[in-house]
Design a protein that fits this description.
mainly alpha, DUF8055 domain-containing protein, DUF8055
């Protein structure tokens, strides 16, 4: 296990809980209080962005930190679950299967997790970004 193992495990657990909440919201008694477009950015900032940045942190700075296969899979899966939450906030169901490496490269290029997610998922369509309501 790498020194990032505990952080990856925590991210993975939280991502699965948050993604599962969307399935629970399909029940007739669900409140849907976290599925509006205004909530989408939080899934990126507090979820996918943290997972991607952990990867960047481990791969830069002079020392390449090797991940165990299970850690890498958990990190990538967590990122994808949060991207699914993000797209569902915009009314789009997506089975995300992106690589954390491609996400990291885009994040370093755009320097913005919202732009990164939008470019990867194509949600919402470019030029049609939903503005959070106040």
């Amino acid at each position: 296990m790498s020194r990032y193992g505990p952080r990856i495990a925590a991210l993975a657990r939280r991502a699965e809980r948050e993604r599962a909440a969307f399935d629970d919201d399909r029940s007739p008694t669900a409140s849907n209080d976290h599925t509006a477009p205004r909530d989408a950015d939080a899934y990126l900032r507090d979820g996918a962005g943290r997972a991607i940045w952990l990867y960047v942190e481990a791969r830069t700075g002079g020392r390449l930190v090797p991940f165990a296969e299970a850690e890498f899979t958990a990190l990538e899966t967590a990122m994808n679950r949060w991207l699914e939450c993000y797209t569902r906030c915009h009314g789009v169901e997506l089975e995300a299967a992106f690589t954390v490496r491609e996400a990291a490269e885009l994040l370093l290029e755009t320097r913005n997790i919202v732009d990164t997610a939008q470019l990867m998922t194509r949600v919402p369509e470019r030029g049609r970004r939903t503005k959070p309501s106040g």
